[in-house]
Amino acid sequence: MISSGRDARIRQLSEQLSEIEQRLIPTGLHVFGRASELKEKADLLRMVASFDRPEHGSRALSRLVAEGLRITGYEQLVQEAGTSETKELIDAIVTESVNRFCKAGCEAAVAYLIAKANVDREEVVSTFRLLANVSEQLESNHEMESLRRSLRGEYIQPGPGADVIQNPSVLPTGRNTHAVNPYSVPSRTAFTRAQQTTEALLRRHVDEHGRYPRAMALVLWGLDNIKTQGEGVAQALWLLGVRPVRDALNRATEIEVIPLAELNRPRMDVVMTVSGIFRDLFAPTMALLDKAVRRVAELDEPLEMNYVRRNVLERTNASAGSFDEAITRVFSNAPGNYGTNVNFMVMQSEWQDPASLGDLFVTRKSFAYTRDSRGRVIEGREAPELMNDALSRVEATYQNIDSFEVGITDVDHYFEYLGGISKAVEVRTQARPAIYLSDSLSPQTRIRSLEETVRLETRTKTLNPRWYEGMLKHGFRGVAEIENHVANTFGWSATADAVDPWIYTEISNTFLLDTVMLERLAELNPHSVESLARRLLEAHDRGYWNPDEHVLEKLREVIIRLEERLTRARVAEGKTIS
Ligand code: BEZ
Ligand code: MG
């Protein structure tokens, strides 16, 4: 018994290590006009080559290697958590081939793969042709020239906006990014991927809570749905148990109900909070989502298999408003308005009661986008009571992440949205919801709890010497980035209580209690270091972390020393008011 428990723990640890190892870690900021370096390029190319890309006539290198080695069950292998000998063998061969490609070119890489894994020559040549194209474009950077052209008011070539790994056609950079045709969302690929993700999401909830959530709240962003061609939208549709139908002009404007026998689970009730950018870009998609909820609510199905209908009837049977009101599920800001402001409130340390953060979220985001019973469009009608009602049944909140470079501690927007809505739910239901994230970053489908995601981000970025040394190469700005990460981590404590105390301890040890590191940081950017120290003290004051008194003393001392240093610097520059 003891040994099987120990084996399971070791297996879990090994899975976590391989997850951290495989994560693509940004090793510095992009410098405008400068091409990426060789090491970064090899990592990036390996990721580009990890997807099948029928639109470029290329297939995943790992798939080609598996086929060459006659390894069966490739799909299952990709989805498996952790590592295995087979996976390691394939990864090692793929990595070596990409390294050879970077050093010696296409022919060397192809020859290696044929000798090592008996791959089909024509197929790998197609994949390396794509990599050669990406590699060449990474080196030829037009950003500076385009900036000059734009300042002269000249024409800039357009190009799609996305993540390089999601869509290599974004290269070369320095073009005028255009977005997406909203009627094309969700793409077929996005809809296929979303099925795996939503099933994994629901499976995880059932594993942890013994049943499906009574209702869920989703955050949908504009840029993410551009980059993923609507994976977030597709996830919402799958949760409801419907698929998009294209009209004669190939526009996704209609809905088809997936029969329960095929869905094999209840339809979920989903409250969708969309960003202001999403609202501006995806009006037809919002109409599609609204239509999907209405259609599902009207289905004559057993209530235990249709949570939308169950929740809607619960409200209308209690004579609490009309059917049209009860099916309102798509919310955003007031027209012309953006953001939740929860991030500003957290960053300024101005809240007393954490409930205010959830209330602020609802104040900003409770504008309904729907239709009335006569089919008239309602675009942003203030409806806090409808949003409060919809949130009062939510037991799980969720957001899909779209990009390698921008994760949940890189910017304050993730905690203002996912943290903000989770706090709003907690206040309205008197219970913290289960909070999940997934990412569209790799061929695997991974659902993580918020706590797991914060740990992963902390280990791969904030506390990872590869990441922070990369940042420190950028001097003043790099220290500000480290401080930003700490502040955004703090945002997850404030909104969702999702940060383990050890994270604050290690941040403090790494950046402030190590005297050599402290001096390096203070030399580059004393302002950010002072903010970082103040943030850690605030984390203690608000009860997120309880270090020994001598650590707190040390942090206070750091602040005093930095203030003295800043005063001295101002005096030396003659900037004091006498
Ligand atoms: C969006 O793409 O919708 C978005 C971008 C940044 C912050 C919040 C939302
Ligand atoms: Mg993003």
Q: What characterizes the major β-sheet?
A: 8 strands, mixed
Low-confidence stretches: none
**Strand fraction:** 5-15%
Question: How many helices does DSSP assign?
Answer: 27
Question: How would you characterize this protein structure?
Answer:
This protein is of the alpha/beta class. It is built from 27 helices and twelve strands. Strands 9-8-7-6-3-10-11-12 form an eight-stranded mixed β-sheet, sandwiched between helices. A hairpin with a 5-residue loop joins strand 8 and strand 9 (377-382). It is globular. The N and C termini lie far apart (74 Å). The model has no long low-confidence stretch (mean pLDDT 92). Bound molecules: benzoic acid and magnesium ion. Residues 221-224, 275, 277-278, 413 line the site of benzoic acid. Magnesium ion (MG) is lined by residues 223-224, 402-403, 406.
